[in-house]
Design brief:
258 residues; two-stranded antiparallel sheet
């Protein structure tokens, strides 16, 4: 049995976003695996380590997939160092939107014979939740979103996920698409021995042209919203008066309270 864990390489949360000539400039910035995707990699590893599939004589294999420029291989190596078995890198310098990217993921899933796809519930660079749903639609697979608990029993997934009113427990048959979030698990840190082992693990590289996809959305420019600080300090000696003054400033000067 095979699990695909979709990962993306994004700007580290501690880094500042810079725009140059109308595009986001990542030169010299620290890039990491998207945290939401990291939960997916960890959950795939835990499912493998639980012995799922062993009874049928076909142990579970974890394959990580990344679509992006050459530097995206760093994120794949991180996932391999965590314990993933191998990686697939679809190489492209063109940014694909969620719909185009879902076509790539769906084709890889079919080619690999995957039965479960894990991906982050929301991509940090897009601020989008569309990838999991678009992939499930292309494959005509059921999906579970924002999972906070997951277990596999034979060809069935059992779990819990977040909904507007709270949470729900669910059961769905494989193959399926599952999106992950914080709280599902605590991702492990790669150990030095596993980092060394990861250097020998397979990463299959394929050109994006082999998948016959093109982005539907063309980004024409980017800008960063910058707000000047008010540079005012409230006197904290009288808490009630300070609170009243703060509310007044937020309403009349900042415009964030109606």
């Amino acid at each position: 049995m095979r699990i695909l864990s979709m990962i993306r390489q994004v700007l580290d949360a501690e880094e500042s976003v810079r725009v140059r000539d109308g595009v986001v400039d990542l030169e010299g910035s620290k890039l990491v695996m998207d945290t939401m995707d990291e939960y997916g990699v960890e959950e795939a590893l835990r499912l493998r380590e639980s012995g799922t599939g062993a009874e049928s004589g076909t142990p579970l294999e974890v394959v990580v997939v990344a679509v992006g420029p050459a530097r995206a291989e760093e994120a794949i190596r991180t996932a391999l160092a965590m314990g993933a078995d191998r990686g697939v890198h679809v190489v492209t310098d063109v940014a694909l939107d969620a719909i185009a990217l879902s076509a790539v993921v769906a084709q890889i899933a079919r080619n690999e014979g995957a039965e479960l796809i894990l991906c982050g519930g929301q991509q940090a660079d897009w601020d989008s939740q569309a990838l999991g749903a678009a992939t499930a639609e292309r494959l005509q697979w059921p999906q579970a979103t924002w999972t906070s608990q997951l277990e596999m029993k034979g060809s069935t997934l059992l779990g819990r996920h977040e909904v507007d009113e709270g949470s729900e427990t669910f059961e769905l048959p494989l193959p399926a698409v599952v999106t992950t979030q914080q709280g599902l698990n605590e991702p492990r840190y790669p150990t030095l021995p596993n980092i060394m082992k990861s250097k020998k693990k397979e990463i299959r590289r394929e050109p994006v042209e082999a998948f016959g996809v093109a982005p539907k959305i063309k980004v024409l420019g980017a800008e960063i919203q910058v707000k000047e600080r008010m540079r005012k300090i409230l006197d904290g000696k009288d808490a009630a008066a300070a609170a009243t003054q703060l509310v007044k400033m937020l309403r009349e000067e900042a415009g964030v309270i109606a």
